[in-house]
Amino acid sequence: MDGWSSCLTTTATVAGAYLAWYAVCAWQCRRAMPALRLRGSHCYVTGGSAGLGEHLANLLAEAGANVTIVARNQDRLLAAQKRIQGHCADPEQQRIVAISADVANAAEGTRALHRAIKAQQGQAPKYVFACAGLTTPRFFLEYRPQDFEQTMQVNYFGALHTIQEAAKLMIQHEVKGGRVVTVSSQAGLLGIPGYSEYTPTKAALRMLTETLYYELAIYGIAAHCFLPANIRTPGFEHENQTKPEITRIIDGDDEAMDPRDCAQCMLDGMAKGYPNITSDWLGDIVRATCRGVGPANNMALDTLFVFLGWFLVPLWRVIVWWQAKSCRQAEAAQRKQVLSQ
Ligand SMILES: NC(=O)c1ccc[n+]([C@@H]2O[C@H](COP(=O)([O-])OP(=O)(O)OC[C@H]3O[C@@H](n4cnc5c(N)ncnc54)[C@H](OP(=O)(O)O)[C@@H]3O)[C@@H](O)[C@H]2O)c1
Fold first, then answer.
1. What pLDDT, in 10s, does the model give residues 123-148?
2. Span of 21-35, 108-122, 313-327 with lowest mean pLDDT
3. Which residue segments constitute the domains of the chain, with CATH numbers given?
């Protein structure tokens, strides 16, 4: 064998072994995910009275699930419950339950889960969606200490407490094929000026879910993290009221996804068994670029997304840097003036 053919044989052997290893890892990931069966299952949605949570609840009702929605405001909850009932595939058989609770309070969150099981005639939740979340964008120097604490309490601890209690109940009730979903954000993958109260809560959720992806698998419960881009919801309208100009430029405030389409993306990602679900291909590039040693959705596609990210991420950074130049200068001058008074 000459030098060239031995070099080719070695390369082909290494590439083949690598691809085989990829295939084994991908198969192992898939094997851990049981099929999604919504009909007749109890689906528990925090933040289910508005926005993404409500549209998700509509889709679950259309698929024949028994749905529990949780939020704080009783009037909005009851109005949403009525709308969701209108989406039921079989209104005679399905139960749509509304429970008022503040998920940021661990005891209230726990009570809500127990009340939900009672109202759903003893049926424990099989699919738990921790959608409740909020943000009020501002510059870092404008926030009060309690703003950071409140947002972390709702976005991170609200989801954590719900999922911990729900997982215990799934095990006690011997629920088969249970799943938990945290709702993070693309903002949980990258730092954006104006979101310092928000991005850490969503990044924390991402790491919590990655840990639970491995740990809850011990009990046969799958964990997903949803990382959507902007969604046209009441929460997004609230954000836009305080969003600094630089955040609008980076975030693209006029480009927001339809909440029903976004909720459908979440369910599609769950059906495919994706650990980290995004709402568009740009989100996939950012997700794959940030994946580190975490689980992949699709080994081959994720490698392609990382490759695209090598070119597109630096390009995007340069464009945004130039677009935001005047905002940075104006904010620096204004802040200096405010702080020197
Ligand atoms: N909209 C976006 O552009 C976007 C993008 C990426 C990720 N996300 C994430 O997606 C999720 C849903 O966002 P959204 O825009 O649909 O929000 P939304 O329109 O503001 O709806 C939020 C829902 O959560 C409930 N909620 C808020 N705080 C709660 C608490 N402490 N306890 C119980 N329920 C609570 C609200 O009802 P009450 O106020 O009555 O409690 C409401 O039902 C959030 O986690 C958000 O961070 C949103």
1. 999 999 999 999 999 999 999 999 99
2. 21-35
3. 32-309 (3.40.50.720)
In ligand 1, the atom with minimum distance to the C-alpha of 69 is: 43
Residue with CA at minimum distance from ligand 1 atom 16: 51
| Top mutation candidate among 46, 49, 115 for ligand 1, by most atoms within 8 Å of CB | 49
Residue 45 backbone phi and psi in degrees, to 5: -120, 110
pLDDT at 332: 92
Token pair recorded at residue 181: 């979903």
Residues 6+ apart with CB under 8 A from 65: 38, 39, 40, 41, 42, 43, 94, 127
Place 307 in a pLDDT band, splitting at 50, 70 and 90: very high
71 C-alpha vs ligand 1 centroid, how far in Å? 9
**Active-site positions?**
198, 202
Ligand 1, closest atom to CA 186? 6
Q: Measured between alpha carbons, how far is 277 from 293 in angstroms, rounded to an integer? A: 16
